[in-house]
Amino acid sequence: MPSADPFFGARKKIERAETHIANLEATLVAFNKTEPYGFFTEDGPEPGQTLFKIRIKNEIPIEAILLIGESLQSLKSSLDYTVHELVLANGGTITVRTGFPIYKGSSPTEYEAMRKPKVKGMRQDAIDYIDGLKPYQGGNDPIWRINELNNREKHRLLMTAGIGYRHGQADIGPPPEIAKAFSADVLKKLGGICLTLRPTDAVFPLEDGAVFFIFQDHTPPYTKPHMNFKFTFGVAFNEPGIVQGEPVIELLHQSVGLVKGIVSDLSKYL
Q1: What's the CA gap between 18 and 2, in Å, rounded?
Q2: pLDDT tens digits for range 126-146
Q3: What does pTM read for this prediction?
């Protein structure tokens, strides 16, 4: 049944992207329940150094990779649909080149040349709005990234993602030689120190056996760390030249918000 809203198709594409992202989140939750990542330790080359290495037991599900690509495609289609409707609303004619202009390079001049046939037939103030977004590399990287990721996904079978170290937690207690002098109740009352460990120069993507954290004891006699370590790993984009190491779910949600805002803004030019 036809809708009175000219941007109905664009909004449905955003909804489709949100559905894909929700399914992706559910897929990754199920994946994490399989405990796909672990870690082991080895002595480092320096005295008092302990290396923490990742153990990857299961690969990222293919279904998750497909959902990433489908989410991006829906978002780019939503932007294209808005331009189609704006051209029609202004009495213009849709051509094979009509679509939301996003230039792969960083030159504003080259962007303008690429943009002209894509928005031909639109109102000038609508074109001015799009130009103000600076939809090219270095001008508006979040928009540029949606386009580049979508183009890569279209020209090969699968988007690539990798495993990244997100954060860790260390619960520090007394060394065993001291702890054994106290009862369990006393140790519980004494408590300990909880440290949050965030990567500053994280290796990405992590391969099985890669070092992701180093503990250094600087005080002789060197001992193993008396800590209960917990580490969190996550799925991140691994597309060199576009985005690497950015968490997939967070970036997709940001992209949805961006596209929603653009579609909403462009509706006033109908």
Answers
A1: 22
A2: 999 999 999 999 999 999 999
A3: 0.86
